[in-house]
Give the backbone structure.
Amino acid sequence: MPKLDLAAIATNMGSDYPAPFHEPIGQRMRQRLGDAGGLTQFGVNRVQLPPGCWSGQRHWHAKEDEFVYVISGEVVLVTDQGEQVLCAGECAAFPANTPNAHHLVNRSAAPAVCLEVGFRSLDERVVYADIDMVYDATADAYFHKDGAAYPR
């Protein structure tokens, strides 16, 4: 596979979370490097977090392992166990079906860039620990924890 041209890969801003859950993620920039490289068995995303931005709502995956590597800058990893600072060159791993909700928050004054790596499960379920939301990949939709769907 030839070298990927980062400048030619689309950058998606924000998230597709229903309101108001999308707000802290509004300035997140994500490039789907795995998709651009034709990968089908796992995904790789380059994520840029400006100061104050979150990587996503705190969550855990039922079927997918998740790995995060900080390329530049500094982020705070927030998990059920508390908070840890991750600097460039540091990483974290989250095994599938381990209910340890996590996300990254950029509390620094400079942008941070990370890589997210994960499996591409077609029947994934993501649980958002702090809010009334789950994601069902088979429906490609967000639901309340009681099963009621969020509007699209």
The chain has a mean pLDDT of 96. Residues 77 and 84 are 5 Å apart (CA to CA). The chain is about 5% helix and 40% strand.
